[in-house]
């Protein structure tokens, strides 16, 4: 690889810091990070990763800024922020975007995450990703990463841009991931991956956040809890199919086997709720619920969870 590649990373939590580390392994990457609560720590001491796969590393990004307004246009904008207020974030990123040059890389849970960026910057390529990295920020600028590490990445196709250019945008970024020695796979159709993970998240995130119990405690809380969960998952699968995303029939059983092979777990939404932080309800439930209405696909279980979570989220936001 040759030629300098300017990258701005927005959302310097555990996942963002992990991918900042991966990108920092390429000498031709000039990395700017947008840091908020960890700005002072990261400016002074850089970012430290303790990884069971990669060992311990400390690195200093080229620049640490508090807002995209302090930076100039880049080749890649990596969005690893919590998926709330997507429209607002897209608006804030305007100073670092140059249509025809900038490509977005979205590393978030949920579906429909790309829409705000496509609408605001119709001339940009978007790479959409699902990540399976297990990491936590144990103190500002210090991230512990377990062995869990994988990513699926692919285009969110832009019909305004020719295929060769889009594929080059994808290849250049995939080469950075490869050089950064992280596990990943390039896929042709990312929407299957995104929706599959949403089937999981719509069930477990919502239920654990609303009940404040773990997954196993929920499943054993009444004889109808498991059938309820399966029907909820079926609703999301039906909506995905309505959107042209063909999820396999046996997904529900696979996800139930997976959850039953684990000890009871909470979720990021449960943690956010406990800590009085806004939750990722729009990309995990809101978008599917809107699609169900547009397409006339009934989803009463999903919609009820969404409405209850909207009220809880509203209470949390009012107290901020
Ligand atoms: C983070 O990782 C370091 C190095 O492996 C370890 O000493 C420390 O206990 C870990 N901290 C937490 C909170 O897991």
From TrEMBL:
InterPro entries: 6-PGluconate_DH-like_C_sf, 6PGD_dom2, ApbA, KPA_reductase, KPR-Related, KPR_N, NAD(P)-bd_dom_sf
EC class name: oxidoreductase
Any one Gene Ontology BP term: pantothenate biosynthetic process
Keyword terms: Membrane, NADP, Oxidoreductase, Transmembrane, Transmembrane helix
Entry GO MF terms: 2-dehydropantoate 2-reductase activity
Superkingdom per UniProt: Eukaryota
Pfam families the record matches: ApbA, ApbA_C
Signal peptide feature range: none
Ketopantoate reductase C-terminal domain sequence ranges: 189-309
Ketopantoate reductase N-terminal domain residues: 8-157
GO CC annotation, single: cytoplasm
UniProt keyword Oxidoreductase present: yes
EC number(s) reported in the record: 1.1.1.169
Reaction it catalyzes: (R)-pantoate + NADP(+) = 2-dehydropantoate + NADPH + H(+)
SUPFAM superfamilies named in the record: 6-phosphogluconate dehydrogenase C-terminal domain-like, NAD(P)-binding Rossmann-fold domains
TM annotation in the entry: 7-24
Function as written in the Swiss-Prot or TrEMBL entry: Catalyzes the NADPH-dependent reduction of ketopantoate into pantoic acid.
Family to which this protein belongs: Belongs to the ketopantoate reductase family.
PANTHER family for the chain: PROBABLE 2-DEHYDROPANTOATE 2-REDUCTASE, REDUCTASE FAMILY PROTEIN, PUTATIVE (AFU_ORTHOLOGUE AFUA_2G14497)-RELATED
Alphabetized NCBIfam families for the sequence: apbA_panE
Protein name listed in UniProt: 2-dehydropantoate 2-reductase
Organism of origin: Penicillium frequentans
